[in-house]
Design brief:
It comes from Streptomyces smaragdinus. InterPro entries: Acyl/Acetyltrans_Enzymes, Acyl_CoA_acyltransferase, YitH/HolE_GNAT. It holds the Pfam family Acetyltransf_18. By secondary structure, the protein is an alpha+beta fold. The chain has a domain of 132 residues: Gcn5-related N-acetyltransferase (GNAT) (Aminopeptidase, 3-Layer(aba) Sandwich), CATH 3.40.630. Helices cover 29% and strands 30% of the residues. The protein has seven helices and ten strands. It is globular and about 45 Å long.
Length: 191
């Protein structure tokens, strides 16, 4: 980890720590920025919103543009694989422009929702409804403490809290991008 931090130079380094790992990262200079609560279960009472549709490769430029705005970095090399990796990948369009996208992918025993990037909270929740209605099996999402709408959605749809993990940053500096657009990470390992 120390070698990685040396190579990072002045770049902002972030991670998500478990309770067990947090003391180690604090010794290295990381500080907590929030909390993420993992919710799991079989979503109940989900009604598809219907404003999203399945993404196509033709949507990729819009997805990449929106994601770069949200994250402040070019994640194209990662995001082009979403079409192969996700079980479902949906977009919301407005005026012929992608204004939200979200995916769901199958982990070892659960369907994990993420990433979810949206200009508006109502579009994020619509994507969540549509994704939850379209997949079968146990469901998992990581709700960031600055996204109370996701906590409300999880509780309202019967998911239960499984764990709390801690996003951390090496420097007390704002993360790049328009972070208000970011609703759910791809996974706790990859924001």
């Amino acid at each position: 980890m120390e070698r990685l931090l040396e190579r990072a130079g002045r770049a902002q380094v972030t991670l998500v720590a478990t309770k067990a790992g947090r003391p180690l990262y604090e010794k290295l200079g990381f500080g907590a920025t929030a909390t993420n609560t993992m919710y799991v279960g079989h979503p109940t009472s989900v009604t598809p919103d219907g404003r999203s549709r399945a993404a196509t490769t033709g949507d990729l430029p819009g997805i990449l543009e929106l994601d770069q705005r949200a994250m402040g970095v070019d994640r194209a090399a990662l995001l082009v694989r979403l079409f192969d990796y996700t079980e479902r990948l949906y977009v919301v369009e407005r005026a012929d422009r992608v204004v939200a996208y979200g995916g769901a992918w199958r982990g070892s025993d659960k369907v994990i929702v993420g990433p979810l990037i949206a200009e508006r909270t109502d579009d994020a929740l619509a994507l969540l409804d549509d994704l939850a209605a379209s997949v079968r099996g146990s469901f998992r999402l990581e709700a960031h403490s600055e996204r109370p709408h996701l906590v409300r959605w999880a509780v309202a749809h019967g998911l239960r809290e499984q764990a709390v993990i801690t996003p951390m940053a090496l420097r007390d500096e704002p993360l790049p991008g328009e972070r208000g657009l970011w609703h759910l990470p791809l996974s706790v390992a990859v924001n």
